[in-house]
Structures are given as structure tokens and as C-alpha cells.
Write a structure and sequence with these properties.
Number of helices: 25
Helix content: 40-55%
Strand order of the largest sheet: 13-14-16-17-18-19-20-21
CATH architecture of the largest domain: Alpha-Beta Barrel
CATH superfamily of the largest domain: EAL domain
Strand content: 15-25%
CATH class of the largest domain: Alpha Beta
Radius of gyration: 50 Å
Length: 683
Amino acid sequence: MADQLNQQDTLVEGQQQSLVPRREVDTREWWLWILAVTVTLVLLFGIVALTIPGLNLGGTGDFVDLKQAVRGLAGLVLIFDIYTLYQHFQLQRIRRALAERDQLFQLITENAADLIAVVDTAGHRIYNSPAYQRVLGYTAEELRVSSLEQIHPDDRQRVQEAGEKARNTGRGERLEYRIRHKDGTWRYLESTASAVLDAKGVTEKLVIVNRDITQRKRAEELLAHNAFHDTLTNLPNRALFVDRLDHALILAKRHSDYKFAVFIIDVDEFKIFNDSLGHAAGDQLLIEIGSRLSASLRGIDTISRPNLIKRFDGPKPDDNLARLGGDEFTVLLDDIRNPSDAIRVAQRIQEKWDSPFVINGHEVVVTISVGIALSDTAYNSADDLLRDAEIAMYRAKQTGKGSFEIFDPTKHASAVQRLQLETDIRKGLELGEFKVFYQPIVSLQNGRIVGFEALSRWLRPTGLVPPSEFITVADESGLILALNRQLMQDSARQLKIWQEQFPAEPPLYVSVNVTSKQFAQPTMPAEIAQILEKTGLATKHFQLEITETITMTDPVHALSLLIELRELGFRISIDDFGTGYSSLSRLQRFPADSLKIDRAFISKMDNDKESQEIVKLIVTLGHTLGMKVVGEGTETEDHVNRLKAMNCELAQGYFFSKPVDTVAINKLLSQFTWNRKTQAAAR
């Protein structure tokens, strides 16, 4: 822009400066002509006077001396000739300077990349530089005839106003407008105009300098497009979608009959595909998914009412599908009549996914989970709608792949409560609110306490929080890892103290549950061994309870990890046995020390013959595999007697003691002898 202004200033200044020499030439020529006429008249008068006898010029009555008069006239002619010659040379110099300046001006204008034009006060073009033909394809004659007609109709008035302003003020402003190329396309020009003034300071002409900025404008448009569109799928991105969604919210508040829905669509198990075939194939799949979604939405015109969108000036249909990022897409379903419309659209979208995608020669069958949030006057921001649609989408994933779910406000309240609980768990870990409670494991042969199961309990200032309220959240959020780490440290340290205070043979042991997230950590054995090394507890007195389900999820990994734990000296117990789907051949290879019968079977032994038989089979199976068996959930004396009759070695449950703190365990260890009185005292 600065170059263009400088070039225009140079051109205008050159024209203004060229006017000065021309005026000077005109002035000098006029003065020279007047002087020539004057000298000629004087000579004529002198010659005539010499030829008239009796004319007394000197006033003395004598004739002027002829010789002196002739000399005077000759001198006057000589002076006039010298002056005339001088003026002639001056005029030649000025004319040469003007010719050189005109030649330079012509050289600049004819070779400049910018389009330079000179117009008169009536708007007629006096001059067009050759760049006009190079850039726009028009000849000077074509522009002279219809130059204004080539300007875009939407820009024509602005161009005329800018020209009028330049003529009135003597200085134009920068202006961008579109002009039609001879081939019919539109080009963008950046234009400035400056006035050429006459001797009286009145605008005589306008010098207009135009620069072709079409490439720059296209680059700007591309940047603007990329700022609001996903570079991979070319769909609107989150920023543009949120803008459209905010606009829809405004319309919903202004028009009570305007309703809409927001879909969040997530590709099920996309990470597996991405990891299997590579990120390039994953990107191609996302492009294909975007295309299929676009095609799906183009077929729902009977449900979405475009005529009402126009009436309300709603979002453009092309912007109603967007990619939020990753494998998440979102849809704005405009102007629906009732919630059932959104359901029908979700069903139609789901139907489009039966046919597989072909990516790099591989057929890929994809399912999607859809979350739906319906417009409501309670919503104040697009983020709230997207949040609720995402909550619904995750609930759809939980119900199974390839399904959809409509957001339920009550479930949102539950999600908020869960988030708050997760935050409270984090704070509780930092403040040391989680304590270890212990439930005794009792030998059914001699009634002696042989070990404990260590359990986390949350003691908040408001009271004890039941494990059922926080264990699931801690597991899903990953906080269970920190919680279990603390549990292992505290229980190992406490057991070491009890072993010293209450020596026994074999020594007391502690049993700790291992969660699925913890079991999936390849460094778990080394980390637990490090904890025991710090507390000084032998690994053989530390038992790890692993559920039957965890061991069967990935049997190869489970076997490898269990072998490593056994090599480190840990005791292994299969927890909740009977509730999973164990393979007996695999179970035989697992290096476990004991089986723990699930409480669901123990609790029904009183009146359920089938449960009694299942417990008996588990006890027999455990003994056959060389394992001890623990009956978990023993609450009555009948439970204990039945387990003893089945030769079950160990029992654990409320019949002996509920989970209690270290103080209560100290008392139990001090006085526990299994008989009716101590049973009543323990309860």
C-alpha cells in the first residue's frame, strides 16, 4: 500500500511539476512576442522619423544627427537579437526537459504493474496504462467507452462517491472494489485517486492508481475459511458451529415456536482402527465419515423445515454439520416440530452405517453413538448444549455400540454430583481422610484370626461415606490407583506392628484387593514390592486379591503378571470366585494360593439348595487345585457350620466382625477365642 501511494504521489508530483515549465514557456513566449512587437514599433517610428524633414525630435529645432540615430537603432537591434537568442536557448532547454519528463512518465506508466489512469472532471478517461489490458484484458478504447460498466454493481456507487470526494477535496482514500475481467471473472482492485490542480487550484484531472489484489483477497478468504473450517474434512469447525448454535439460541428466545436439537456423534472404537491401520488411514476414514454424514443430512428435508429457517434467518444448512475434533462430529437440527423429529433423524443417520467403508483396500464397518440435546429456554450458551449432548453420547456408549440417547436433566444432575464427588475424593486423599479398616479372616479349624482384608474407608467431617458411593467413581476416574497405593502402604506398615505385638505361627497376613486399572499397570509388581521394602514386611505375608473377571479378561497377561508376583513371594487369591466365567484349564495354570467364594452364594446357603451345592463344588475344586478356600460373607452360625462341614479352611464376615479400625482390631487380637461369648462380644 505504501508503494502504491508513493508511486501515485510521484506521478501526480511529476504532472504538477511538468505544468510549471509549460507555464514558464508560455510566459516567456508571450513576453518575447510583446518585446518583439515593441522593438519593431520603435524601429519603425525611428526610421519614419528620419525620413520626415522638419521633425524636431530633440526639441531644438534641428534635425537629429543621422549618424547617431542609426547607431542607436543598430544597438537596439543588436540587444534585441541577443535577448531573443538567449530566450530561444532557454525555451529549447525547457522543451527538452519537458520531453525527457514526458518520456520518463510514459516509461513509468507503460511498464508499471499497477493500473494507472487519468480522467477528467466529467469522468472521461484521458489515459489508461497498458497494465489495464494485461490485468483485465480490456483495450484503452473498451475502457474509455464503458469503464464504469465493468465495476461490480454492489461497488459502483462507492467508486463514484470516492471519485467525487477526490475531485472536491483534492485527495482520495484507499478503496477496494471488484471489476469484471474480459473473460467474465471478477478481480479485486485496490485504488487511490489524487487530483491534478490547475493554476487557480481547481481540480483539472484525477490520477487513479489501481493495484490488482485478487490473489491477496483469495488468500485472505482462504485464511478466513480455514479459521472456521476443519482442514481435514472441510466441514465447519467448533468455532463456526458454536457461532451458529448461539444464533439458534437467540432465535429460540425470540420465537417460542422455534425449536432445534444438537447431536454429538462419536465413532465407536475409532482408536482401535487408527492404531491398526495407521493415522493416514484413520484420517481417510474421518473424511469418508464426514461425507456420509453430509449425505445423510441432505435426506432429512422432510423433518427439518427450511422455509421456517429462512423466515427466522436461521443458520445456513451447509453449516449444520461440523467436526468438533478427533472422531467427534456434531449436527444442528433446525426448526424441529417436536422431540420425536430428532429421534427419527438419529434413526435415519444410524441406518446409513450398515454398509462398510473401503479404506486402503480394507472393508471397515463403523458404528456411531449419538447424544441428543433438545433446545430449551433454560440454555444460555452453546457450550451448555454441547456439554449435555456429550453427556447423552457417553450414556449411549454405555448402553451399547451404535445407539443414541437423549439428554436427561436428571442424569445431568447425577453427572454434576459425580464430578463433585471426584473432586472431593482428590481433596480427601490430600487431607488424609481415607483410613484403612480391617476385617478379620478366621481359621474354621481353630477359630484363630490368621489375617485381615484391608479396606479403604472415607471418614469425612460429616461422617463415614459408604464404599458403594465412592469406590466406583474412584475406579472410573483413575483415583483408585492413588487410593490403593495408600491402602497398601498403611496396611503393610500396620501389619508389621501387629506381627511384632501378636506373634503367631504362621504369622498374620493382610489381603488387599487389586483393581483392574492397577492390574493393567505393567510396573505393578515392582511398585508393590518397593512399598513392602520400605515397611519391612515380607512379601509372603502380603496377599493380593484379584477378581476372577480380571484374570479372564486377558489370560495371557494375567498369567504373566501372576507368575511375576509369585516369584517376588506374594500370595495370590482369586476373589469373588463363581461370579465370572473362568476357564478351568487356565485356572489350573494360575499360581493362586486360595479361592474366595463370593458372598452371593454364602448368603443363600440357609435356604437355597442350589447355592449349597455350588459352594461345595467350589470348595472341592479349590482343594483339587491345591488351594485354600475362604468363605466370604459369613453372617450366621449356620453359614459357619456348613462351611466347616465342607472342609472350608477360612471364613470372613459379619459373624466374626465387620470391618473396623486398628483400635478395634487390637482388642480382637488381644481377646479373640472362637466361642459363643466372644462371638457375641465381637458383634
